[in-house]
Amino acid sequence: LDTGDTLGSLLLGASVVLGVLCLLNSMRLDDSIPMLSNTFPLLSLHAPTLHHSALDKPLTDLMVAHFDPETAGAWDDWVGSLSESVRVDQTPSSAIEHLLRALHLNEQSLLDDARLLTEAKRVFKVTAMDSLIDDSTKFNLRSLRTLLVHTKAWEPGLFRLIDRLQDSAIRVDHSLTEEPWRLDLDLPPRCSQGQADLFVLLHNNTGRATNVKVDVVVAEGEPALQTIRVEAQPSRRLDRSRVVDQVDSLGRLLDDATVLWIGLAWPDSELGSHPVQVTLRGEDGETLSSIVVQTTLSLKAQQESVGQRMSDAASAVRRLALSMTD
């Protein structure tokens, strides 16, 4: 046996193994780096704090709540510049909300790219369209898609509600055509760090505007009871005899909905399964609808923790950027 050949083979093998380990470590470190973006360099480093409970333009309001100050300032400037760039039946905020809905349906493969452009042209004039398809501008179709993916990674709950609403619209579910009230909510099944985001989606099918109360009872929560008073506008019922376009039906249902984003909290000492009850009450205090859900509190960092969601948002945006590059 030639000692030199054996030693050479061992060194070569060790070099290959070390090379593979270095490559894997490099990939792991690269994947853990927050979103690398020259357009929104601080976005992935920002965690939302205070926000409004009622979301007037749900997708837009939720997305903006997750902006860092620099991105928020640029966004305000951009929205302000759109006053003459939207169709006569639109405002800048309504046009943006319409486009975000179309982007979400496109991401769900319910809308192709050609229809996406058609929907953008429905609400934006030609001058704005030129900017939206120009990748060199700060806010365009590509960057709006990136921001929406970032928001969805942070707050998947609202998007689950929207997807269920879309499914109900496709099936023309009785909750949208026959029931006087439709109440739906989303709460993560597991919560860490004593915090959770509860999303509530309400439709008033009574035919008249009604002042209602939404009571949120959180077992051992801080606080244990939250009451939110809103005026629920009447929703336009879906017609079972008509085939309704997906974009139009989702837009109408979200425009007519009352959407709430409610932060929940528990003491650090609370662990295990905890019920959360959401009750809709009428003007005289009568119960119109009620739902009870369970969530499990844990001290360990879970998928729903702030740090994990920040990392997930950065990774989701990075994957989208790579897919667009391909």
Cα shape: globular
End-to-end distance: 50 Å
Whole-number average pLDDT? 84
Structure summary, number of beta strands: 9
H and E order: HEHHHHHHHHEEEEEHEEEH
For the CA atoms, what is the radius of gyration?
24 Å
The CATH architecture designation of one domain is: Sandwich
Q: Which percent range describes the beta-strand content?
A: 15-25%
CATH topology of one domain: Immunoglobulin-like
- Helix/strand/pairing category: alpha+beta
Helix content: 40-55%
Number of helices: 11
Q: Spatial order of the strands in the main sheet?
A: 3-9-8-5-6
User: What's the CATH class label of one domain?
Assistant: Mainly Beta
Low-confidence stretches: 29-36, 320-326
Q: Major β-sheet, in short?
A: 5 strands, mixed
Question: Would you mind describing this structure in some detail?
Answer:
This protein is of the alpha+beta class and 326 residues long. Among the domains are: 53-154, no CATH class; 180-298, Immunoglobulin-like, CATH 2.60.40.2550. It is 46% helix and 21% strand. A five-stranded mixed beta sheet has the order 3-9-8-5-6, with no helix packed on it. Helix 7 crosses helix 8, helix 7 packs antiparallel against helix 11 and helix 8 crosses helix 10 (246-256). The N and C termini lie far apart (50 Å). The model is unreliable at 29-36 and 320-326 (pLDDT under 50).
